[in-house]
Amino acid sequence: MPFENRLHQVKDSDEQHIRLVRLLAVGNEEAFREIYDLFWDKLLKFVFSKINCRESAEEIVQEIFLDLWEKRETRQIRHLSGYLFRLARNKALDTIRAQIVRDQHREYFCRQNSNKDSGTEASLAFQDLSDAIQMSLAHMPEKTREIFRMNRFEFLTVREISSHLQLSERTVEYHIAYALRTLRLYLKDFLPSVILLLMT
């Protein structure tokens, strides 16, 4: 393709992104869906290349779009693609750091469990954590809580939940991402390293 044509395509793409960002800022759902369709696969491929886990990569991309929609009125986005991929990179790095913490804690608990007296203490710690998670779930909207329980505790897929509740798969994905975000926020000061172990 001649250079002039490629340059023209880039210009058209930039103008399209500017238009979409402006529409998004005033709550235009069609613009949001168009951004979603334009960038979902690209962001998923990018995040997966960093963390090599499809499920975690999908959760990160869901969170990116949830963040984009929730903060549409306050974010000053000058370059849509750059904004989304910076967000993806940062979230991928957070996930990598969390994995390091999880590995350290697995090693720690393995060592602790080798000691006879440590079993009860570890069991109580996890019971406390479980109680705290249940409390945080109680602070979620009913529909979000229901979808999260079906996905994480009953191990239903997004498609299965969508069919069961008569909701679009995209809506189910948003609720799951919102629930994960709420849990991380609500439990951030409660055994943070162990929470990271259980949250992904």
> What is the makeup of the main sheet?
none
CATH structural fold name of the largest domain: Rna Polymerase Sigma Factor, Chain: A
Structural class: mainly alpha
Overall mean confidence score, pLDDT: 77
CATH superfamily of the largest domain: RNA polymerase sigma factor, region 2, helix turn helix motif
Number of strands: 0
Structure annotation, total helices: 9
- The sequence of SSEs as H and E is HHHHHHHHH
How would the global form be characterised? globular
Total separate domains: 2
The CATH class of the largest domain turns out to be Mainly Alpha
Strand content: under 5%
**Helix content range:** over 70%
End-to-end CA span? 44 Å
| CATH architecture descriptor of the largest domain | Orthogonal Bundle
Spans where pLDDT lies below 50 across 5 or more residues: 1-10, 191-200
**Radius of gyration over C-alpha positions, nearest whole angstrom:** 20 Å
